[in-house]
Structures are given as structure tokens and as C-alpha cells.
Design goal:
Layout (H helix, E strand, L loop, with lengths): L11 E7 L9 H12 L3 E8 L3 H13 L5 E5 L10 H5 L5 E2 L1 H15 L9 E5 L2 E6 L3 H24 L2
């Protein structure tokens, strides 16, 4: 018996941009995620921008995970080491399970593009309930790398596995 691939699944994803300065008009990373999702024929369920405040980040993640029509959450921004970068610290404890390989592969691929500075990324992925969650840096290049090489090729499989009983 072969392992299921779940390529038939329709995906509805929510995007959360974490930034103290971005607006919908200049959120290039969030817009890039949206464009790539649409090119892959996935549906945008919601798109929000919040300040780098743990309560706001957590509220969106938990509410979206409680919505059975949202299969994936893609978060961009707040993954670095400044005092305001709180996305990783807020989202990682919400995971039921962490996909450690995502961060490892992301940093490896980033290293090939930007060198040793890749180790400063705290990109990660995991799941909460039946929702796939990805946490990405705020740069457009990082978002493009993660979306094209890691997320889009596997998101249907990830969601399909989360939905298996």
C-alpha cells in the first residue's frame, strides 16, 4: 500500500503578517504569500496584519485553528532576535506538534542564498488541532523561498495527514 499524498485536497489558508510598521498597502511579504497561494489554486480564507504583540498573535492563531474551514495559517514576521520579535515565542507553545524538519530545511536553503546569517531565522512549522501552521521571516525573499520550495509542494500532504483519523 502506498502512502497517501492528498494532492486532491482544496486548501483554505489564512495569512498573518506580524509587523509594527506594515500596512496592507506595503506588506510585500503578505502579498507575496497571497499571490503564491492563488497561483497554486488555493483559497485565501483571511489576511490580517497585527503588531508584534503576543496577545494579538495568539488570538488570531487560536481563532483560526478553531475554524474548521481554515486548513493552514502562514505567519510572516517577528521571527528574529530583536526585543520586539515575539512571533516564534508566541506561536511555538501553541503547537500540538512541531515540524522540526521545516526550520532545519528552511535554514539550510537560506544558507545557500544568504550564508551564515541564515542561522538567525527562527522559522518553524507545526500543527494545532487539524491546522497546519507555518512561521516565516518577514522578508519577501524568505517568504518566496519557503513558499515555493517547502510549503506549496507539501501543504496538501500536511493537511491531509492532520485530517486522517
Amino acid at each position: 500500500m502506498t502512502h497517501p499524498t492528498h494532492h486532491h485536497l482544496s486548501i483554505r489558508a489564512a495569512i498573518l503578517t506580524v509587523s509594527d510598521t506594515r500596512t496592507i498597502a506595503d506588506d510585500r511579504s503578505g502579498q507575496r504569500i497571497q499571490a503564491l497561494l492563488e497561483e497554486a489554486s488555493f483559497t485565501l480564507a483571511d489576511y490580517q496584519i497585527v503588531q508584534d504583540e503576543p496577545a494579538e498573535i495568539s488570538r488570531y492563531v487560536q481563532n483560526w485553528c478553531d475554524d474548521s474551514t481554515i486548513h493552514a495559517i502562514i505567519i510572516t514576521g517577528g521571527t528574529g532576535f530583536t526585543a520586539r520579535d515575539q512571533t516564534y515565542d508566541t506561536v511555538a507553545p501553541l503547537f500540538d506538534k512541531e515540524m522540526t524538519g521545516f526550520g532545519e530545511l528552511f535554514r539550510t536553503l537560506s544558507y545557500n542564498e544568504i550564508g551564515a546569517k541564515a542561522m538567525f531565522s527562527r522559522a518553524t512549522a507545526g500543527s494545532r488541532k487539524q491546522t497546519a501552521i507555518y512561521v516565516l521571516p518577514g522578508s519577501t525573499n524568505a517568504v518566496t523561498l519557503a513558499m515555493t520550495q517547502l510549503i506549496l509542494p507539501t501543504i496538501q500532504h500536511f493537511v491531509g495527514e492532520l485530517q486522517r483519523l
